[in-house]
Amino acid sequence: MKIEPKAIPVAEVFDGYVNSGYDGVIGYGGALDIRPKFQREFVYDNARQQAVITTILSGFPLNSMYWSKTGKASFEMLDGQQRTMSICEYLEGSFSVEVGGNPKNFDNLSKPDQDKVLGYELMVYQCEGTEDEQLAWFEVINIAGLTLKPQELRNAVYTGPWLTDAKRYFSRDNQGAHKLAKGYVTPGEVNRQDLLQKAIEWHGGKGDAAIKKYMNEHRQDANANALWTYFKSVIDWAKLIFPTERKHLRSVPWSVLYDEFRQDPLDAGKLETRVAALMSDDEVQRKPGIYSYVLDGDERALGLRQFSDNQRTEAYERQKGICPKCKKHYELSEMDADHILPWSKGGKTLPDNCQMLCIRDNRSSS
After folding, report:
1. What are phi and psi of 50, to 5 degrees?
2. What number of CA atoms fall less than 13 Å from residue 258's CA on the CB side?
3. What confidence score (pLDDT) does residue 86 get?
């Protein structure tokens, strides 16, 4: 890949700057695509943006930026979007920085300070090579100390029409998937692709390899309708079956339950009665597991309360080390605590409901 270093003044980069939000950002007289399709969304908070401007006003160097050549005189941002937009948004008057103890927008700076910002030279490496070479490089670039998340890296590699459409649904705060699924999923940082990753995991499988396989297979699809339709179906089903919102809903594996039980004739009212009772049961330690349990009956999802070491020792001494099932003597380490009356029949995790069984008998009992 051919790389050519150039020092470009801020004024030239800001020339023709237009921020159309999700529809794109351009600058450098319209010749620079600041937010290409593979790029992450703008994620710098106010403090980071201010730090960029303070660095410039102090005359300190910013990290190098990389532009990819797309035509004879046109470029797209390979690395440097966050810093470039911070600079341009400051020049637009979007935020202020503290100068001499006072907050100042660009228009309020002294003429020497304005000239310092506009004349500040950005070190830009203009790169020319194949798409694969550029994206491979992008994958290992660390943007101003803010490490790319795994899904942001995948987006850089598997750019295409499918990804562009998928981001429309899954990468925008308070829109699309985020607005639909509020209360039923933990969205993470939506603009940093956490929700998109979750949707792909639901539809294509968990793990980096499965996600990459899914994205590669669909990369050139005209749209992401299949992913959106599946995600919407899962959430709509969850809301229909469990309409009472609780914080625990956000940790439920909805896609797994949807795939297994969507055809079953479930009674939402009866399910809610069971859920409410289990929520108030002190024996249930893993509350999100209640939603799986009321459907499949697997108690392991509930994380039921376990007997303490003191309770185990007390029961062991009471039994003199004898297993009540096989009548043989064992060391404490060779035995497990068991509920005499099971939790499913109303038994509690109390000392008088504890018995010690040898490991073999306890497992056969379970």
Report:
1. -60, -35
2. 17
3. 94
Under a CB-based contact definition with an 8 Å cutoff, are residues 290 and 257 in contact? no
Tell which residue, 25, 96, 24, has the closest CA to residue 54.
Answer: 96
State the residue for tokens 């911070």. Answer: 86
Structural domain containing residue 219: 149-305
pLDDT digits (tens, 9 = 90+) for 41-52: 667 888 999 999
Q: Distance between CA atoms of 280 and 273, rounded to whole angstroms?
A: 11
Residue 348: CATH number of its domain: 1.10.30.50
β-bridge partners, 337: 356
Q: Is 116 exposed, middle or buried (0-12, 13-18, 19+ CB in 10 A)?
A: middle
Contact 34, 67 (CB under 8 A): no
Distance (Å) of CA 86 to CA 45, 65, 91, 92, 156 = 10, 14, 9, 10, 21
Q: 3-state SS of 306-354? A: CCCHHHHHHHHHHHCCECCCCCCECCHHHEEEEECCCHHHCCCCCHHHE
In this structure, the answer to whether residues 9 and 49 fall within a common structural domain is yes
CA distances from 155 to 166, 192, 237 (A): 10, 10, 29
Q: What is the pLDDT of residues 86-122, one digit of tens each?
A: 999 999 999 999 998 899 999 999 999 999 999 999 9
3-state SS, residue 103: strand
